[in-house]
Amino acid sequence: MTNKKIGIIGAGIAGLSCAKQLLNAGFEVQIFDKSRGVGGRMSHRVFDQWHADHGAQYFTATHPQFVEELQEWILHGVAQEWHAKIVNFCDGQFSEKKHQIKRYVGVPAMTAPAKFLAKNMSVFLSQTITEIRKNQKKWQLVSEESGVLTDEFDYLVFAIPPIQAKKIISQQSDSLSLICEQANMLPCWTLLAYFKEPLGLDFDAALVQDNIFSWIARDNSKPSRVNSHAWVAQANPDWSLKQINLNKLEAEKILLQEFEKISGVASDFNQIQLWRYAKLETPNTQNFAIDENMQLALCGDWLRNSKVEDAWLSGYFLGNKLKKTLIPSD
Ligand SMILES: Cc1cc2nc3c(=O)[nH]c(=O)nc-3n(C[C@H](O)[C@H](O)[C@H](O)COP(=O)(O)OP(=O)(O)OC[C@H]3O[C@@H](n4cnc5c(N)ncnc54)[C@H](O)[C@@H]3O)c2cc1C
Fold first, then answer.
1. CA distance to 29, 57, 139, 296, 309, per residue, from 5 (Å)
2. Nearest atom in ligand 1 to 33's CA
3. Residue 302 — very low, low, confident or very high, per pLDDT cuts 50/70/90?
4. Are 157 and 173 in contact (CB under 8 A)?
């Protein structure tokens, strides 16, 4: 047990995974997120008649530690394998994908594993952290919504994308700022489209080439989704980057036109979203980063390879490292 108190900024899967390790080791942990819910880019949108996962679409599990975590999620009913028919789409032709990997999704939505992890944790939502201040040896947080927060922390963990982390820590840690600067995140324009009738496409998802999209998926082919005919179409990183300054109406027009070429039918409702920091450009091998002098640390998918599994592992490895660093062994 320890009386040290740790503040985590970001309640995505990395921040929650780190919190789990720290809580298990006996630390007091508080988590802050600017959104109204947990899960970050493992996100799900709910509309009047329909809903869809609009960030991460599925995840894979290869590292033994994450496989173990996934088994717990499955046992508690918050994740399941997605038995999808996934095809390749190139030159206007669909072809069966030969090597299928096991893909998993949160159930009933991609947010479910994060909600499961956050249960019984101290999570403060709608708190956009803008500044950190050191008061004697303790850290204090300043949020856009509440000003200076009263709690004081021995250590702070930033489980947020690099550009956002750098803005907050640049005055405090040169070494961590440099690590943030070196990571480049690519955007993703995303279309969510609802159809009153099912589309006549004979597959559940497609990896797309030669098109502005890189991925399209029938959201209701995932387990435990109610029968609403929603499709998610993600533009590829090159196109998204070139078109990052489009306004939503312009992007909507193009994405809808392109999707209609594939589906053959106009959507009944749709929603457009630009993810500015969707995925890392070049894989990283750091796992996490620490500035021991300043008692600040970084974790997140971007310190590995921009997948749900990487985010969870980054938080897991950082949590274990902090345990060893902050709890003196006998
Ligand atoms: C469009 C898209 C498709 C994807 N597809 C897949 C996929 O198919 N498979 C896969 O494995 N991965 C996929 N990913 C990647 C996956 O979603 C991420 O790797 C993972 O969710 C990242 O988790 P994280 O905890 O590191 O960061 P995030 O999920 O980004 O969590 C960071 C959290 O920090 C909060 N935050 C940020 N700034 C502040 C601040 N100043 N104050 C307070 N809170 C703040 C945010 O609100 C967020 O909740 C996709 C991502 C996107 C965007």
1. 6, 34, 10, 13, 26
2. 44
3. very high
4. no
Distance (angstroms) between ligand 1 centre and the Cα of 307 equals: 9
Please tell me if the CB atom of residue 307 comes closer than 6 angstroms to any atom of ligand 1: yes
Whether residue 221 has pLDDT greater than 80: yes
CB of 84 closer than 6 angstroms to any ligand 1 atom:
no
CATH fold of 5-326 reads FAD/NAD(P)-binding domain (3.50.50)
**Ligand 1 contacts CB of residue 303 (under 6 A):** no
Please report which confidence band the pLDDT of residue 330 belongs to, taking 50, 70 and 90 as the band edges. low
Q: Report the Cα–Cα distance between both ends of the chain, in Å, rounded.
A: 13
pLDDT bin (cut points 50, 70, 90) of residue 103 is: very high
For the chain, the structural domain boundaries read 5-326
List the Cα angle 181/187/188 in 5-degree steps.
160
Which residue from 54, 86, 132, 160 has its CB within 8 A of the most atoms of ligand 1, so it is best to mutate? Answer: 160
Q: Considering only CA atoms, which residue is closest to atom 14 of ligand 1?
A: 56
Residue with CA nearest ligand 1 atom 36: 10
**Letter string b/e over residues 152-163, b meaning 16 or more CB atoms within 10 A of that residue's CB:** bbbbbbbbbbbe
Tokens 């008692």 locate to 295
Residue-by-residue DSSP string for 16-47: HHHHHHHHHTT-EEEEE-SSSSS-TTS-EEE-
Centre of ligand 1 from the C-alpha of residue 12, in Å = 6
CA of 40 to the centre of ligand 1 (A): 4
* 1 — pLDDT class (breaks 50, 70, 90): low
pTM of the model: 0.97
Q: Does the beta carbon of 156 sit less than 6 angstroms from any atom of ligand 1?
A: no
| Residue 94: how many other CB atoms lie within 10 Å | 15
Please tell me the distance between residue 42's alpha carbon and the centre of ligand 1 in angstroms. Answer: 6
Could you tell me the two tokens for 311?
């985010």
